[in-house]
Amino acid sequence: MNTQQGSGVLLMAILLLLMSTALLNATRQQLDASLSLVADERLYLRQASLAASALEAGKREKWASTVVWRCLTARQQPDWRACFKVTTKGEALLRGDGGKDTIAFYQWVTHDEQNGRVHPQPHGWLDFCPLAQEEDCLPDRETAGL
Questions:
Q1: Which InterPro entries does this entry report, sorted A to Z (predicted)?
Q2: What share of the chain is helix, strand, coil (3-state, %, to 5)?
């Protein structure tokens, strides 16, 4: 009479289930990490788009010559602002951002004081503040007209 124990098959089934569980857990962790990256990328793209839009809108505005930041926002797009400043060296700088504590883009411009228009300088676009002091790069509430 043949008696079959079946413990080998049962052991293999349990081992297969354990390996499958480990693989599913690793896949879930990888998916969580990917979703976090996608969310970060989405936030960056939104902020960069708003900053670029603000910078372009700022190029079409008339600006008064000032050594402190002056900022404008739009009613239809309250998240972004365009800011203008003339440095102590007489250079004019335009700043566009997507709101407080977001990405900001900068553009060196020439300022026509008679009509207030600005004209972008060739190769003057920057994704970092070119001013030496960090506090000079940030418009504050009082000087920015907010």
A1: DUF2509 (IPR019652)
A2: 40, 25, 40
